[in-house]
Amino acid sequence: MRSHSRVSNVTRLAGLASFALFAVALHARPAHATGAILASASESGPTEIDVQLAVAPTTQGTTRWTRITTAGTHDVMWLVPVRPGARIDWAPAAWLDALDETTAPRIATRSSALCPVSYVERATSWATTGPASAPSPLLVHDTESDARAHAAARGYRVTADLGSRITDVYAHGEVLVSVELADAGAPPGTRFSSPTLRVSDDAGPTLPFALTNGGSVLDARLTVFAFGNAPKVVGATEDVDPNALFWTASRNNYGAVREKFFETSDGTRWLRESASHQVLFAGVSLPDATSVPSLAETYFRATASSPAACEASAKSASLMQGALGHACAAGALARVGGGIDCVPEDGTIPAITMTCGDADDLALALSGLSPSRAFVTRLAGIVPLATPGTDAVLANAGSASGPIYYAPSNDCVTEPSPAPTPSFTDPSPPASAPGPSGSYVVASDGCGGSTVSSSDESDTSTESSGSSDDSCGGSDSSSSNDGSGWDSSDSSSSDDSCSSSSDKKSSSDDSGWDSKDDSSDSCSGSGGGCSSTSGKGGDDEGWDENSATPKTRSTKVRPTKKSSLGPRRKRGSSPVSRLAIFVVAIVLPLRRRARKISF
Predict the structure, then answer these.
(1) In DSSP terms, which residues pair with 66 in a beta bridge?
(2) Domain co-membership, 223 together with 136
(3) Among 186, 249, 276, 334, which is least packed by CB within 10 angstroms?
(4) Would you call 453 helix, strand, or coil by DSSP?
(5) 397 and 518 belong to one structural domain
(6) What is the tally of structural domains in the chain?
(7) Among 210-219, 231-240, 526-535, which is the least confidently predicted range?
(8) What is the pLDDT of residue 591?
(9) Phi and psi dihedrals of 118, rounded to 5?
(10) Cα 345 from Cα 58, distance rounded (Å)
(11) Interatomic CA distance for residues 296 and 277, integer angstroms
């Protein structure tokens, strides 16, 4: 009994699986909307082909927006297969433009102590466009023979391989529509783009590239925008790897990473550049304090007479729960006979809330979806050089990604540079905290205005300091800025420090001098630096006896070895100090004795 029960359950599951596969196959009808590009018999064919395609699957079928760009030919015929009952329109270029702009990856650096500035750069579009070409009237070809005869009459070449694929189109119950595009007399090789062709029919959720060939010189580049209630994948889809990205010389390497991804592709690999709900109605805030407007805002501002009101309506509807009603395209350009005609459906959210006058592309893209949970996925792919493409089915998979990717910057230093602090004229601590190495930075106008860095060392040993000329007189060494133990009543000094303010007569520094000290202990107000020893009778301190200002010369200042914040230390007497003691001890007694003798 158990064995029989198991067989029965397996049989039921197999039956259900077969039914599900049949239902999927029935719904996923072919859709070759990107079509074939025919060159004239006198030309070899387009050297470059780029395709932008937006796909919005619904419960009644699919709406597809396609724009092709070619180079290397003066004119082409575009053959587009459509399903019976299809409604065909020219859509505004602003729709694909808005999708391209709002979903494009942005490569950014994070602001940090090592990188105080955030770089943000928009990645270049994979499939690009050129000037718009004025199309000929669109024609519907109900039979294969009619399509072939029309192409031959207009001087366009149908290869044997393409001919077999055209036969396959009609065998699947589809028909071809044709339109001619020309470069309008532009120089040879000029890129030109078609208008945006919108087709709404009962096709399944496929990417229709079976009739799309690669260029004769370059691979055809494909950019797809897929709508749904979840992120989309197709075939072998991979996400952008943020670990492969970096910045250098204020540029990022996203384009190079993408190029490398497709170097070995046979046309079955796809790169998912972004998958986001936020871009639809909220927009994206960037780390450099700018933002990318939402798809709704960008689209309505380019197409609607009252963009603010239309944007507000769409954004309000996006906050509601439930599905959007089903909208039907106008079919103003052409309607193909037969098939299942589109029927508008009421939803929890009226489709009119996403429509603004004739601008109905947003409503068509979100028909039957829940706007509060909808996603738009951006995919990049190729059709290899001079080979035909293949159709691929969209599926839900993965999670939200992009459109912002953070990458490290090679422009940033590996260790933080100490930030300069304002000049000061008293021995107060620096305004900035010490860095990892315990260093401080003091910006000073003294000694040529160079920045002086001091290290906060804990060494308690006594170190000898340089003379006054070593500090500010032009030598490469710098004096230590610590206490000397001199009394504030002394009248002579060595030039141990420089004033940080150019208009101060004196400054109180770490050498222990009181603010009452003579101005000879610091740099002059107008000099902006410290003196060197003058060759015109200047004393050891570098002062001219006939003037109150020091002689100045520029000098390089090296970081001192001890911080002004550390414990004050006695320093050994300088030659000037010894001379002063000698004068007091020897000369003054002699003068007194001389006076006694004179009296």
Answers:
(1) 53, 197
(2) yes
(3) 249
(4) strand
(5) no
(6) 2
(7) 526-535
(8) 62
(9) -90, 120
(10) 11
(11) 12
The three-class DSSP label of residue 195 is coil
Region class of 90: left (phi > 0), else alpha (psi between -120 and 50), else beta:
beta
The whole-number pLDDT of residue 188 equals 67
pLDDT, residue 430, reads: 40
Task: Convert the pLDDT of each residue in 471-498 to its tens digit.
Answer: 444 444 343 344 334 443 443 434 444 3
Q: Average pLDDT for residues 143-158, to the nearest whole number?
A: 95
**Token code pair at residue 550:** 């020091």
Domain extent for 86: 24-406
Instruction: Please tell me the pTM assigned to this model.
Output: 0.65
Residue with tokens 């998912």: 272
Q: Taking a C-beta distance cutoff of 8 angstroms, is the pair 548, 463 a contact?
A: no
Which amino acid would we find at residue 158?
V
d(CA 462, CA 567): 11
Question: Facing residues of 91 across strands?
Answer: 196
Residues 360 and 462 grouped into a single domain: no
Looking at this protein, which amino acid is placed at residue 298? T
Instruction: Please state, in angstroms and as integers, the Cα–Cα distance from residue 128 to each residue in 20, 48, 53, 100, 234, following that order.
Output: 39, 11, 12, 10, 21
Whole-number mean pLDDT of the chain?
A: 73
Q: What burial letters (b/e) apply to 461-481, b meaning 16+ CB within 10 Å?
A: eeeebbbbbbbbbbbeebbbb
Domain-located, residue 565: yes
Whether the upstream peptide bond of residue 403 has omega within 30° of 0, thus cis, is: yes
Q: Give the number of other CB atoms < 10 A from CB of residue 435.
A: 17
pLDDT tens for 199-208 read 999 998 888 8
pLDDT at 39: 87
Same domain, 130 and 266: yes
Sign of CA dihedral 60, 62, 65, 68: negative
Buried b (16+ CB within 10 A) or exposed e, 381-411: bbbbeebbbebbebeeebeebbbbbebbbeb
Are 220 and 389 in contact by the 8 Å Cβ rule? The answer is yes
137 has a pLDDT exceeding 90: yes
- Name the β-bridge partners of 198: 65, 89
Residue 14 domain-assigned (yes or no)? no
